[in-house]
Fold each of these.
Amino acid sequence: MKQELPTIPGPIGVFDSGYGGLTILSKIREALPQYDYIYLGDNARTPYGIRSFEIVYEFTLQAVTKLFEMGCHLVILACNTASAKALRSIQINDLPEMDPARRVLGVIRPTVECIGSITQSRHVGVLATAGTIKSESYPLEIHKLFPDIQVAGEACPLWVSLVENNEAEGDGTDYFVRKYINELLAKDTQIDTVILGCTHYPLLLPKIKKHMPDGIATVTQGELVADSLKDYFRRHPEMDAKCTKGGNCTYYTTEAEEKFIESASTFLNEAVTVQRIEL
Ligand code: DGL
């Protein structure tokens, strides 16, 4: 049975398939510390990047529905895979029926907006999950704004699993970081800017920087998404009024709580408490 959604102001929802969205959440909280947040990680079903459109859409819609039921009026999909595969369908087909006044925003558009002013060669690379690369969302969004930029993409199927399994700093990880960077750069030797199009990848940044050739800019998303959200609130005072401001953040996971606490504290550099929920 359809549940009535709470109408009083509530926290901002931040969703990811796992821990990756924490890299976005921490930058959003730095930029907008006054708001309340709920972070939801679907750790039990991560990774999403290898799943079909239908499944990513189904899982993401379940998460968004849950966050709305928990009182959020605004949900950020802090996950490129969900942004690429589910955001548009949710915005166009589901929101009008669930509540046309609620909003779901993604991370791809805010990321590509800055690309035109970074690349000199007009050749850009994207490293992301297989799902995001296959969706062609990055080339599509980049070409809407900058039709002259050439875009090459490379799927990095193992990177999310390495991060989720606390291997971001492991010795074996170097091999896979080097491999996908080299494969991307071999596709287009003029690339001067590489987008890390997955919210898990900032955790691999030390190794990515180590293996990225000099002169190539690496773009991460956290600050870009945070700036874009700030701007969104400036343009939408009606949504700002629906977001509570107590400076709190609560965490939910679909996996075991102990596992989340252990990994999330390395992502955030602070201890967190978390509650397990079912979607
Ligand atoms: N962190 C997510 C992204 O930005 C998804 C990783 C996954 O679940 O495969 O794409």
Amino acid sequence: MDGTGGAAIIDGKAFAEGLRARIGAEVARIKAAHGLVPGLTVVLVGEDPASQVYVRNKGKATEGAGMKSDTIRLPAGTSEADLLALIARLNADAAVHGILVQLPLPGHIDEAHVIEAIDPAKDVDGFHLINVGKLHTGMKDALVPCTPQGCLMLLRDALGPLDGRSALVLGRSNIVGKPMASLLLAANCTVTIAHSRTRDLAGECARADILVAAVGRPGMVKGSWIKPGAAVIDVGINRVPAEGGKTRLVGDVAFEEARAVAGHITPVPGGVGPMTIACLLRNTLIAACRSAGLPAPAI
Ligand code: NDP
């Protein structure tokens, strides 16, 4: 609680800054000790404005952590065969430890083909079937999708061990909902996954000690749905109209209502969002260490 009767705010921005600083220190250490410079290559096909911003931010953050950053921009008309050939070259390049193909891809390219072409050891998004399978079967060397990994880190930091808590994951996408549920299960939570066909969403939410909302619907989760004292992680990023013809970002949770009931809550922006890139850097560092036969740093 923050002294005003509201939930404690989980400051993802500050946590992500700390994580990035620890990653930067570890990068400097392995560079000095082993001459190893982790390298991340991001591939962007086409000119989607949001993707361009994401890719620019990823590049800056990678360099900021002392890693080698490369961004390959391809025209929207690039064929699937040419993209697969590029991935084959990156797979074979020992200086590239992480490969990220920015999604969504233009409609003529099959995203599944592209993801499966990436060497699982370089799949820093954690979307390859090998990494998905490793996560779901509890293998420790999975590269885990960045956003749910970030949510888990914030939860552990706020709550300590999660054993025995009931967790509701709202949303079942492959990039957030499903891996989030797997991570919470591995952390010994009792996990429920809700989605658009769930009958009593409010009732399901009300049982949860931990509620992770990843639906993409502004303010859908009401304060009255939340169990008093629960930890609420809001993954949603929704742009809504604001005063003066501007727009602003809001999450999937009605923040002010929820804050009055919850024990902990992430804001939007400044909650989960900054963790995604920090966890991408973490995955790149882990991939680089493994490629050199070094133990993955415990950060
Ligand atoms: P998807 O659209 O892939 O999945 C949304 C999920 O929400 C689906 O499982 C869907 O159910 C469910 N859903 C939609 N409407 C309802 C409803 N009315 N009631 C119950 N469930 C519903 O989204 P993503 O998982 O990719 O992303 C979710 C949100 O997280 C978005 O706002 C996105 O922008 C944000 N995001 C944020 C990131 C970050 O870095 N912070 C990273 C990735 C995503 P069904 O399966 O039945 O259709």
Amino acid sequence: MADRGLSRGLTDYGDRGFSLYLRHAFAKSMGFSDAMLERPIVGIATAGGGFNNCHRLTPELVTAVSRGVLGAGGLPLEFPTISLGEPFLTPTSLVFRNLMAMDVEEMIRAQPMDAVVLIGGCDKTVPAQLMGALSAGKPAISLVVGPMMTGSFEGVRLGACTDCRAWWARYRAGELSDERIGEVESNLATTAGTCAVMGTASTMACVTEALGMSLPGAATPPAVHAERLRVAEATGARAVALAAENLTPDRIVTRASVENALRVLLAIGGSTNAIIHLTAIAGRLGITLTLAHLNEISATTPVLVNLKPVGDHYMEHFHAAGGVGALLRELAPLLQLDAATVAGETLGERLSHVPAYVGRDVIRSAAEPLVERDALVALFGNLAPNGAILKAAAADARLMEHEGRAVVFTSLADMSARIDEPDLDVEPDDVLVLQNAGPIGAGMPEAGYLPIPKKLLARGVRDMLRISDARMSGTAYGAVVLHVSPEAAIGGPLAAVRTGDRIRMSLRDKRLDLLLPDAEIADRLREFARTPAPSRGYAKLYNEHILGAERGCDFDFLMMDPSVGPASETSGAGTV
Ligand code: FES
């Protein structure tokens, strides 16, 4: 029997015939006929569970994928992996992305499947699945669960989670009663699916389609839309063909497709988190994505999609306006059209049959962009030798060339204890700095969107320059500099900043500087002492092997290039 389907990767008892006989016996205990067990096997990796609201309709998708697999002559076998529900994890979901990637990789490799469908959606699940599948090397295709529909409050449309933040800021400013913020809370996330704006989940869905790892049109149908189920059925059918063609992901995810995906990330005004994820995904195949390259591509890519948090609309509108296909066609002159896709055609071939309708309220033409260039940029300087990220498209333009006095918080706990103190010494032109919130410091939480101090909110201040080594939710907005690297917790220059220092940021020059002599910064850092590392378990593994944000926060030993070292050993080396 050929080494495929159930005979693939036998359990080792030292007797191949016995292994196969035993596997068949147990497979038959699930009620499968011999004919069914002869079919190619499509694994369906699921990441649902009671702690993941976004993946609530996974069972429906499994049914639809299975229908597609069976119809195309395969045998669908579902298997669970870790689920990462964004709001339900502590300290952050990013800490567990690599754990999920390892789970996905090992289970794809260990179990007898000829191809795999990856059903994910909530922020970290899609990158984790792609990272794992790329490393496992079997034919794979992604299926996202789809975005939520919007709700409404007092006639105003609401969608998680840009509106969560806007309404919470109004509540903090005293404009909303407890009762009314409670009603907002009940209407922010009203269906299954991922956040309704261009947050990390939506960004990764679009990036995955642009990478060629999901079917054309797979990114945008809402979770509760019938089209979502039709895409699922088609994905299952295509997975059977992928198995027959042995079309492995390394033939799809190439430098060309990664650059196409980066163009799309920028053109949708996507999440800063996706830069980390795309870097990690590419790294699994030895493709290096540097922050300098991000700036080159950002300088020539317009923002065309008018979705929150950069614009006005929601994912359901992007879908109705033509989705990723319409966007790709608008971007075509900037794309590498010979890139392969999981559908078996090149990107160029795909774009030759995208429907003509485009909703111009939502998807602008290249001639009339929402933002001309530089939606997301990397900044460098003595405060971020390895780089930092700024989502310029979602910030107050007034703050893009700014110098101000630092107001420093040394940790998340410090910030939460003092940010709203009435006697906090802070003015609107100051620069809020948060230290020790990077990958090692705190698991890199989405805390880079530091709250505006209450006393300034009351004065009408809605944006300030904020700097940290943390991340920011893709649904957030503001003059927020993130991912400062090397991070403070391993002795990066961010650790040297003290309240009263002056900081200058320039979008024009792509600079972020602490206005102190280098010798003074070095002197201050001489006093730096790293906190003790965890002594056991996953926390120990994480602490010893996590790479910096500019390298995708992957574990050094999981990247394709084994010469990379852990962040603690390579800080300052940079990759730009
Ligand atoms: Fe899952 Fe936002 S909480 S995508």
